[in-house]
Amino acid sequence: MSATVPTSGGTGGDTGDAAGAGVGIRLGLAANLPQFVLLVAVNALVGGMLGQERITLPLLAETVFGLSAHTAALTYILAFGTTKAITNFFAGTWSDRYGRKPVLIAGWLIALPVPAMLAWGPSWGWIIAANVLLGVSQGLTWSTTVIMKIDLAGPARRGLAMGFNEAAGYFAVAATALATGHLAERFGLRPAPFLLGAAYAALGLGLSTLIVRETREHARAEAAAHPVGGHHHAELSTRQIAWRTSVGDRSLSAAGQAGMVNNLNDALAWGIFPLVFAARGLGVAEIGVLGALYPAVWGLGQMATGWWSDHVGRKHLITAGMLVQAAAIALVALGESFTVWAAAQVLLGAGTALVYPTLLAVIGDVAHPAWRARAVGVYRLWRDGGFAVGALLAGIIADLWSLEAAVWTVAGLTGVSGLVVAVRMTETRPGRA
Hints:
It is a multi-pass membrane protein. It comes from Planomonospora alba. With 433 residues, this protein is mainly α. It has helices at residues 33-51, 56-63, 70-73, 75-98, 100-111, 114-120, 124-153, 158-187, 192-210, 216-225, 230-234, 238-248, 250-271, 273-279, 284-312, 315-334, 338-366, 372-400, 403-424, and strands at residues 3-5, 25-27. A two-stranded antiparallel ribbon has the order 1-2. The model is unreliable at 6-23 (pLDDT under 50).
């Protein structure tokens, strides 16, 4: 499905699918398929940059750098989550001001030194610094690919577009985690696993610089044709948008807290689960398989759940997904075998797949095109702040009590978050709101 909207004159930039002056810009996946597919591939490389750390860094903290305290060992997730969350906020504003493509390229440039710092950094401080850069890079690149796909897709297939975006990113996380687990088993924890990241960064920068096209004009054209208060919405300040997204709008604020708790879960899976599995006697390769199962199911499942949310609505999928995640995390705490933990990882991936693209679709549904990019930035500020909150919370509880206590705490918080969505969020899908 596609729609043609008139350009709003005098805005400049690459008009994507505009056939010529006065013809207009076409919205929709079919009308923008080559660029959409390219952006899916770019986001897979973005996800791969994150996947290179999923198995190796929790084990490096203990075996190479001798960090026995869980709070200290999880500082890399704290550094990553904090910088990514803050950068997400600015990425939306900058993409409106300067265009999407320059922000995307800047993100890849910042990513270039990260693999080398992880592979050869002589102290834990180097690992922290690498994750600061990685957080900034991910905030710029992942946020921008989300915004660009929303620009191209138009309102009718927004959930499907987000499903493909997040599926590509998190399937790449899974595939890279699996690959680095095997590389670490065969060649050691450093440097071999991080050579994949170096290749991803070089390829991502090349594609973004040479082939990706600007999509800001698609959002401007959609805003010009929007039936409700376009001029008023264009005058909203960033502060007003931040308040509306974080607190003022029931659906947007419910999405923000659910996103934060979801990534709090991911911090637990990233930093604590490998330690739980290792403490129960699993080897690096087995931990790599478990670490890959969760994002693999999460990634692949989003192609279906994003499409599903376009047809049945957003709210109930998000509520169900949070409750399924809570059950899966509890199963990790209860489990004693690889088989049980594998089932828990599949269940956790399925619950996350119900939630992740659907939350982004909610933001696209509610936010006016004139301030949508900034709303995405605010939402992703809260969502990726969950990495930092999760690292601190899980680390402190693990140090005070146990790894299992940290897992149970996060399971409870996840269940409460699902109930908040059920009570506070309204249905936002176009045609059902």
